[in-house]
Automatic annotation (TrEMBL):
Entry similarity comment: Belongs to the ribose 5-phosphate isomerase family.
Keywords: Isomerase
Binding-site residues for substrate, renumbered to this chain: T32, G33, S34, T35, D85, G86, A87, D88, K98, G99, G100, G101, K125
Organism: Litorivicinus lipolyticus
CC terms in the record's Gene Ontology section: cytosol
GO terms (BP aspect): D-ribose metabolic process; pentose-phosphate shunt, non-oxidative branch
Record's protein name: Ribose-5-phosphate isomerase A
EC numbers for this chain: 5.3.1.6
Subunit composition and interactions: Homodimer.
Superkingdom field: Bacteria
Key word Isomerase present: yes
Class in the EC hierarchy, top level: isomerase
Gene3D superfamilies: 3.30.70.260, 3.40.50.1360
Phylogenetic placement of the source organism: Bacteria, Pseudomonadati, Pseudomonadota, Gammaproteobacteria, Oceanospirillales
């Protein structure tokens, strides 16, 4: 089974969890990336069974609309019952690194607005300790060098993701060589740096459910 086939399988497994929640007044949260894209495509036959979705990126919003799903603003949607999204890494406590697709800020907002976060990943994303995947940090452009120096003080090696501007008009620093033994503490510390909009650690609000695709099928993991 290819990685893409595993991503599709976890997307279908997530759909099985979400289908019973769908109703005429229900709005769901949708993430960004190749795994989330499979989930969006799988929603097409059910597009008329719920009110719509809040998207974590312009790319996902466009894909939802192409699949017949109405896209709503979070401000008019209130609390969402569920958020479905991928991740770049997850640890045994369901802390995550996200933002490989540069959508981390809106992803974190929609996750925070949701009662349940279903994380859909292939097995390559499972790690004992977060940090092998470089941690994305979204930064106000004028603060890029300042924040980079502060991230070095925290023990990381930040690299400017050249050519990438987020949906919010900001830039991304990818922080290499972090061994993240205190995900909540590091998430808060990085968020406290002036110029940082958001960082890709999802520990203060991690996933509730992880569906992991393996060559032997989809595993529903628990903490
Ligand atoms: O955080 C993300 C985008 O900002 C994605 O969820 C993460 O990069 C995983 O992507 P994929 O499903 O393509 O492996």
């Amino acid at each position: 089974m290819t990685a893409d086939e595993m991503k599709k399988a976890v997307a279908m497994a997530a759909l099985d969890l979400v289908k019973p929640m769908l109703a005429a007044d229900v709005v769901i949260g949708i993430g960004t990336g190749s795994t989330a894209n499979h989930f969006i495509d799988a929603l097409k036959p059910y597009a008329n069974d719920f009110l719509g979705a809040v998207a974590s990126s312009d790319a996902s919003a466009q894909r939802l609309k192409a699949n017949g799903v109405d896209v709503l603003e979070l401000n008019s949607a209130g609390t969402l019952p569920v958020y479905v999204d991928g991740a770049d890494e997850f640890d045994p406590r369901f802390n995550l690194i996200k933002g490989g697709g540069a959508a981390l800020t809106r992803e974190k907002i929609v996750a925070q607005a949701s009662q349940q976060f279903i994380c859909i990943v292939d097995g390559s994303k499972q790690v004992p300790v977060l940090g092998n995947f470089p941690l994305p940090v979204e930064v106000i452009p004028m603060a890029r060098s300042l924040v980079a120096r502060e991230l070095v003080k925290l023990g990381g090696d930040p690299v400017y993701r050249e050519g990438v501007i987020t949906d919010n008009g900001n830039v991304i620093l990818d922080v290499h060589n972090l061994s993240i033994t205190d995900p909540k503490g590091l998430e808060a510390a990085i968020n406290n740096l002036p110029g940082v909009v958001c960082n890709g650690l999802f520990a203060l609000r991690g996933a509730d459910v992880v569906l992991m695709g393996t060559p032997d099928g989809v595993q529903s993991l628990s903490i």
